[in-house]
Specification:
Elements (H helix, E strand, L loop, with lengths): L1 H35 L19 E4 L2 E4 L19 E6 L4 E6 L2 E7 L12 E16 L6 E13 L10 E5 L14 E4 H10 L9 E3 L8 E5 L1
Parallel strand pairs: 3-11, 8-9
Antiparallel strand pairs: 1-2, 1-7, 3-4, 4-5, 6-7, 6-10, 6-11, 7-8
Length: 225
């Protein structure tokens, strides 16, 4: 009987320990992946969030003036053709290009994510837009508090979920485009952001915040080196 028990114990050890290790490693991997994607990339509120009394923000240890927002929501920009509208962000050139098919609509310098807060690469879709919202995050010299960030276009794909907060948006706290500055979002000159906000889908339909649906899908964004 003792021998049988010993054989059972040995068999349990041989089978049980590897199974336990596989499960443990799986949990560790899942937890690490979850924590990697748990933070909102730009510290933003994913909705329209306007403070009409905001006068001052903070960026990289300096106070910055918060400009007044445009008082009205404009109509969407109608296309000159039926070709697909899409946006290209070139990280190596720090440029954005908006296309109607193969026809260039606009081009501009931008500021994408710092090396330790990179802008994700891949093919995305705009899934929501906000006329303005608040962004706050970072620490030390990289702390920022930025109310009324204008013309925000949130994007996502199957690997980068929308709640992470990556977006294209206007920028009032620096004018150093062509160099990396952000926590992962794509900083645009505000006039460029405004044009894209009304050129892209989902169409704003006179609303301060709108999400995509089957009848109002999001514009495609391709981000690459």
């Amino acid at each position: 009987m003792a021998k049988k028990r010993n054989h059972k114990n040995i068999l349990f050890f041989i089978i049980g320990v590897p199974v336990f290790l596989i499960v443990a490693l799986g949990l560790i991997s899942f937890t690490a992946k979850k924590s990697l994607f748990s933070a909102n990339a730009c510290g933003c509120t994913i909705s329209e969030n306007i403070d009409p009394n905001a006068k001052e923000g903070t960026f990289e240890g300096k106070k910055v003036n918060v400009p007044a927002l445009a008082g009205e929501i404009k109509e969407p920009v109608l296309g000159a053709s039926s070709a697909e509208r899409w946006i290209e962000v070139d990280l190596s050139e720090q440029k954005i290009r908006a296309w109607e098919g193969s026809q260039l609509y606009l081009e501009s310098l931008v500021s994408t994510g710092l090396p330790w807060w990179p802008t994700p690469q891949g093919e995305f879709r705009i899934w929501a837009k906000a006329r303005a919202t608040k962004m706050e995050g970072g620490s030390g010299r990289y702390y920022y508090y930025l109310p009324n960030v204008p013309y925000v276009m949130f994007f996502e794909n199957g690997e980068v979920p929308g709640w992470r907060g990556f977006s294209l948006h206007g920028t009032y706290w620096h004018n150093d485009f062509g160099r990396v500055h952000s926590h992962g979002c794509v900083n645009l000159p505000t006039p460029i952001a405004e044009k894209l906000f009304y050129w892209t889908n989902p169409a704003s339909e006179g609303k301060g915040f709108i999400r995509t649906d089957a009848a109002n899908p999001g514009t495609r964004i391709v981000i690459h080196e």
